[in-house]
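Practice problem: predict the structure.
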Amino acid sequence: MKILVCISHVPDTTSKINFTNGDTEFDTNGVQFVINPNDEFGLTRAIWFQEQQGAHVTVINVGGPETEPTLRKALAIGADEAIRINTTPTDGFLVATALAEVVKNGGYDLIIAGKESLDYNGGMVPGMLAGLLGYSFINACIELTVDGTKAQAAREIDGGKERLTASLPLVIGGQKGLVEEKDLRIPNMRGIMTARTKSLTVLEATASGNSVSVKFEKPAAKSAVKLVAADQLDELINLLHNEAKVI
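Answer:
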């Protein structure tokens, strides 16, 4: 079984976020980048298939050279090889189109992507990728097993989970639950050294993105806190009604 795991290169949530050039560009200075958490759950599940069923695991990213350390970390975790599509991911359709070309030429049985990335939370790429390929698609996937050409999966729904059966080839949008957090892999020294010798192929994108105009805006600063004495109930009610407008 050949598995392709889509990896997004996203800012760590502890990083301080700023914008430049009139708030139209993300300022990467001082920002630590990591594997998108939803993708990391998918990668860990792919490594399980590698260890239990002899699957071949390839990781892929759409982005510039700055994303290669993230791909190298995925290789250190256990992926067999990596692919970087050398283009700026300006929109979800460009990313899905670029990935679809690799899938068509690579003969992959299972494509694992995170249901959404931590930076933009668009949640578009896995579904569009499945649509472009004509493959079955399971989003919000929290369980996955494969027996031959059949996959058994479960996805999160309101109030519980839904169990599904699908045939390979298959695209899933994975999330927490696909594996447990305690099962996530931390690269060890042997893995880090081995990753240096594994293949990282750079491909040029065959499609161009739309002309997208972006402007970022930080959340408004929180207003000052007003303290009300415990015996001033009327004042509290007045503030909640006239200022906060919650009653």
